[in-house]
Amino acid sequence: MARFLSVLLRRLAGRLLASRYSQTLTLLGALILAGLGTINLLQPRAAAHPTGQAAHEEAYTLTGKVVRVADGDTFTLLVDGRQQRIRLASIDAPETTHDRQQPGQPMGQASKKALADLIAGKTLSLACFEHDQYERNVCDVPLGDGSTANQKQVAAGMAWANMQGRGKYMRDARIPELEAHARRAGLGLWQYPNPVQPWVWRYRCWKKAQC
Q1: Whole-number pLDDT of residue 44
Q2: Of 25, 88, 144, 200, whose Cβ has the fewest other Cβ atoms within 10 Å?
Q3: Per-residue pLDDT tens over the stretch 126-159
Q4: Active-site option among 95, 130, 171, 179
C-alpha cells in the first residue's frame, strides 16, 4: 500500500510539474512575441512616395562656378575642375533652337539671357535632389537675397512651373503660385496668347513634327 501511494504521489507531482512547465513556456512565448512586436514598432519604416513617383536620391550640395548657360533652365557648373550639368528643379523654360528638326520656342533666347543675368560667372552652392535621365543634377539654385534662380525665372515669366506628369517633378511648392502671379501680370511668355508648355512642345513639335 505504501508503495502504491508513493508511485501515485510521484505521478501527481510529475503532472503538476509538467503543467507548470507548460504554463511557463506559454508565458515565455507570449513575452517573446510581445518583444518582437515592440521591436517592429520601433524600426524606422521606408518613406512612402506618391503614386507613380520613384524614390528620390538623398539630397546633396554642389559648389562651383557657373561657366556656361545653355538655356533658361540648364547650365554648367565647374566643381573641383570638373564640369557638372545642372537642371533647375521644379521649372521648365521655353526651348531654344537645337537644329532644323528641333526648333525653339518664342521667349527661348530671352529666358536663357534672364538666367545668365542671374547666375553667369558666379560661384554658387546648389541644393540638389537627384540625377535625371540625362545625368544632369536636378537642383535648386539659391541666390544671395533668399530666393532661388528657379523662383526668379518663373516669377519673371521666363519659365513654367513644371507640372509635367501631374507635378511629379515639383520640388518647391511656391513655384506654381509664382507662375500664377506672372500669368495674371502678363509677364514674359504670358504676354503671348496660349503659350505652349515646353514638355508639350518637345512632344508635338520635336517628336511628332507638328510645329
Answers
A1: 34
A2: 144
A3: 999 999 999 999 999 999 999 999 999 999 999 9
A4: 95
Q: Is residue 145 part of a domain?
A: yes
28, pLDDT greater than 50:
no
CA–CA separation, 35 and 18 (whole Å): 26
Looking at the domain assignment, is residue 80 inside a domain? yes
State whether residue 75 is helix, strand or coil: strand
**Band of residue 163 on the pLDDT scale cut at 50, 70, 90:** very high
The residue annotated as part of the active site, out of 58, 82, 85, 87, is: 87
Tens digit of each residue's pLDDT (9 = 90 or more) over 175-196: 999 999 999 999 999 999 999 9
On whether residue 194 sits in a domain, the answer given is yes
Closest to 143 in 3D by CA, of 66, 76, 70, 74: 66
The percent of the chain in helix, strand and coil, each rounded to the nearest 5, is 40, 20, 35
Q: In percent, how much of the chain has pLDDT > 70?
A: 73
Confirm whether 171 is a catalytic residue: no
Can 130 be counted among the known catalytic residues? no
Tally the domains of the chain. 1
- Domain hosting 120: range is 60-207
**Residues 130, 136, 171, 179: which is the catalytic one?**
136
Q: What is the CATH number of the domain that holds 194?
A: 2.40.50.90
The closest of 60, 67, 72, 59 to 83, measured between CA atoms, is: 67
- In the predicted structure, residue 17 carries a pLDDT above the cut 70: no
Q: Which three cell numbers stand for residue 64?
A: 562651383
Residue 101 belongs to some domain of the structure: yes
